[in-house]
Design a protein that fits this description.
The chain has about 280 residues and is an alpha+beta fold. The protein has one domain: Alpha-Beta Complex (Creatine Amidinohydrolase). The chain has five helices and 15 strands. The strands form five sheets. Strands 1, 2, 4 and 5 form a four-stranded antiparallel beta sheet that branches. A three-stranded antiparallel beta sheet has the order 3-12-11, with no helix packed on it. A three-stranded antiparallel beta sheet has the order 6-10-13, with helices on one face. The protein is globular. It starts with 16 loop residues before the first helix and ends in a 6-residue tail after the last strand. It binds 2-amino-4-trifluoromethylsulfanyl-butyric acid and cobalt (II) ion (2 copies). One cobalt (II) ion binds next to loops.
């Protein structure tokens, strides 16, 4: 109701000045104009190419530090900067999280083994623009139960993305994810959420992966945020390791995650980090 006139008052940057001001004032959300979207999309294209590159290196015997070096060098070679490096003291250029590690795993001497699942979360800064995406990969052959978790988690992201359009709400996004995860017998991590992204690594709004239809902030064209559900095979409890970063499941069960950076368009959604789900 508040912004039903938005479409009629679109200016040449495809943003209504009043909506732009209102979303800043109410929520501290920075709507993105065409120039910003183009910049984030270019960063996003590099993030996707980085994930495609890394996929070819995922196999038993590879260390997570080797994956870090590949991401670091590839990013610099393409004129970009790895956003994780030095972010709040994070010591590496990419997050690599294995099995019961939910997110923010620090690359190191750990060797990937047949049957593991490994998430690689890449955030690149290109010409000052940030894009953020991750995927969970199988290492060699994995158990059917692990395969199902990874598949359902990818579906959770796809379902969340499919709800995105002007007039929908963040509660719609969270509900689509939560209902599919829980109907599949899994739980949704609550403490870690998606986020606005583009000018900075983490912007407003917070994007919960749980929710109720119709509740929460109303989506408008020009919003750019990540959707990045973390889905646990077991309970929703989490712990943080003594390294200060790695988040793991409390019960030791597997956790999977997929993330894309999405734009709310005039009539729906566009991924700025598109890869098949
Ligand atoms: N890429 C993560 C996210 O999706 C954040 C990683 S923060 C880091 O938001 F410092 F661990 F890199
Ligand atoms: Co993110
Ligand atoms: Co990320």
């Amino acid at each position: 109701m508040l912004f039903r006139n938005a479409k009629a008052r679109l200016n040449r940057r495809n943003l209504s000045p009043s909506v732009e001001a209102e979303y800043w004032k109410r929520y501290r959300i920075r709507l993105k104009d065409k120039n910003a979207v183009d910049g984030i999309a270019r960063a996003g294209d590099l993030v996707v190419r980085t994930l495609d590159m890394i996929r070819e290196h995922i196999r038993p015997g590879v260390t997570t530090e080797a994956l870090n070096a590949l991401v670091h060098d590839f990013t610099l070679a393409h004129g970009a900067v790895p956003a994780p490096l030095g972010y709040r003291g994070f010591p590496k250029s990419v997050c690599v999280s294995v099995n019961d590690e939910i997110c923010h795993g620090i690359p190191g001497p750990r060797v990937l083994a047949e049957g593991d699942i490994v998430n690689v979360d890449v955030t690149s800064i290109l010409d000052g623009w940030f894009a953020d995406a991750n995927r969970t990969f199988p290492v060699g052959q994995i158990e059917p139960a692990a395969r199902r978790l990874v598949q359902v988690t990818a579906e959770c992201l796809a379902r969340g993305m499919s709800t995105v359009r002007p007039g929908a709400t963040l509660g719609d996004v969270g509900f689509a994810i939560q209902s599919h995860a829980e109907a599949s017998g899994y739980s949704v991590v609550r403490e870690l959420v998606g986020h606005g992204v583009g000018h900075a690594f983490h912007e407003q709004p917070q994007v919960n992966h749980t929710g109720r239809p119709g509740l929460g902030i109303v989506l408008v064209p020009g919003m750019v945020f990540t959707i990045e559900p973390m889905i646990n095979q077991g309970g929703l409890g989490i712990r943080r390791l003594d390294d200060g970063w790695t988040v793991v499941t409390d019960d030791g069960s597997l956790s999977a995650q997929f993330e894309q950076t999405v734009l709310v368009t005039a009539d729906g959604v566009r991924s700025l980090t598109p890869y098949p789900l």
